[in-house]
Design a protein that fits this description.
With 284 residues, this protein is an alpha+beta fold. Helix content is 24%, strand content 29%. The chain has 2 domains: 82 residues, Beta Barrel (OB fold (Dihydrolipoamide Acetyltransferase, E2P)); 187 residues, Maf protein, CATH 3.90.950. One of its GO terms (cellular component) is cytoplasm.
Length: 284
């Protein structure tokens, strides 16, 4: 992209964030998230709170050039600009799952902030898997969105493993994982993954959207020795149904119908659909 295709603004760094990210207050009073340019990283130029900086932004409309001050450092905005130089809001993932971060990276999306949502995940009495997973994703997204005052889009996800109408627990102990694997051995089961996008109060242009993806997975019959070998890997920890498709359990899965990425924790196609449906240039 040529220099003529960029918009420059001047501003002041107000907060240092992880992964070389910064919060910048522009001279026009807008708050944005930005990261250091490649030239700054190459020259090892440090940025501190209170520093004056130039911010280069990719326009979605006609470029508007703002003359930088001589003392400014150059940074790059974390998102494209919108109408009249408006900045795309921060992208927040309401999950601390490394698997979901890795899957988002396959779409070329990196959250500016990651906030795990601490909610009560106990199923209601007689609650079915599909309504349950929708409710979990909705509660996670809403809890995080309600805590953010700046413009932001919150993405949440929840995954459950079900045998018929029975929801299998998330394996927090080896005993729970062992019981789940014994139930799944030699049988088909269903994996439901719900995703939900919720805008924060600071971004009224955003819209609430959701998808629920249903996949079928079949395990081969496993001996007790094989189950114990799976448990010894530790892949079961914190996993719905006590296994991870991307882990050692893959050697016992003989059939999948649906979305493999949804079984792992984030359906990529449906996530891309939700992001494309939001205002702004989230995905091509």
């Amino acid at each position: 992209m040529s220099k003529e295709d960029m918009i420059e603004f001047s501003g002041t760094v107000t907060e240092l964030l992880p992964n070389a990210m910064f919060r910048v207050k522009l001279d026009n009073e807008h708050m944005i998230l930005a990261h250091t340019s490649g030239k700054m990283r190459k020259n090892r130029i440090r940025v501190l709170a209170g520093d004056r900086v130039n911010v280069e932004m990719t326009p979605m409309t006609s470029p508007k050039v703002v003359s930088p001050s001589a003392s400014s450092k150059t940074m790059t905005a974390s998102g494209p600009t919108g109408t009249e130089g408006a900045i795309r809001p921060a992208f927040v993932l309401a999950s601390a799952s490394p698997r979901r971060l890795d899957l988002l990276a396959q779409l070329g999306v990196t959250p500016e902030r990651v906030f795990p949502a601490d909610i009560d995940e106990t199923p209601a009495r007689d609650e079915q898997p599909r309504p349950y997973v929708r409710r979990m994703a909705a509660e996670k997204a809403q809890k995080i969105a309600s805590q953010i005052t700046e413009p932001a889009l919150v993405l949440s996800a929840d995954t459950v493993v079900a045998l018929g109408h029975r929801i299998l627990p998330k394996a927090e102990t080896i005993e729970t994982a062992r019981a789940c694997l014994r139930k799944l051995s030699g049988r088909r089961h269903t994996v439901f993954t719900a995703i939900r996008c919720v805008p924060s109060a600071g971004w009224p242009e955003g819209c609430v959207s959701e998808r629920v993806v249903e996949s079928t997975v079949a395990f081969s019959r496993m001996t007790e020795q094989q189950i114990e070998a799976l448990l010894a890997t530790g892949d079961w920890q914190g996993k719905a149904g006590g296994y991870a498709l991307q882990g050692h359990a893959a050697g016992f899965i003989r059939f999948i119908s649906g979305s493999p990425s949804a079984v792992i924790g984030l359906p990529l196609f449906e996530t891309a659909q939700l992001l494309r449906g939001q205002p702004g240039n989230w995905l091509p």
